[in-house]
Specification:
mainly alpha; 5 helices; 87% helix; elongated
Length: 106
């Protein structure tokens, strides 16, 4: 179950990273938040791995959004995909463990 989930997540993350260029998400991001765009790019260049890792681990925010942002600013792909894998692995493992524990109680 873990590897099936991770395969789907990683496939989607790779697609969104590269599709953000073709979907012109970068243009929309740049137009709406032009004043903050430079700051965001600097932060992601400096702390991008940790931002993506934390974002992908936190269950209440959509991971797709950080995938679009990382792809549109062309964040280092190895750092990006590593952070997504680690963050989502922890989250998926927690879901599986908690789900199994709940099913054992029933």
């Amino acid at each position: 179950m873990f590897w099936i989930s991770m395969f789907g997540i990683m496939t989607t993350a790779i697609y969104l990273y590269f599709a953000s260029k073709f979907l012109e998400f970068g243009n929309l991001f740049g137009q709406k938040h032009n004043s903050r765009k430079t700051k965001i790019i600097e932060k992601l260049d400096k702390h991008g791995f940790w931002v993506v890792l934390g974002w992908s681990f936190f269950p209440l925010v959509p991971t797709d959004l950080i995938c679009y942002i990382a792809g549109s600013i062309r964040m280092n792909f190895i750092k990006y995909i590593s952070a997504i894998f680690i963050g989502e692995s922890i989250l998926v493992a927690c879901y599986i463990f908690l789900g199994e524990s709940i099913l054992k109680l029933i």
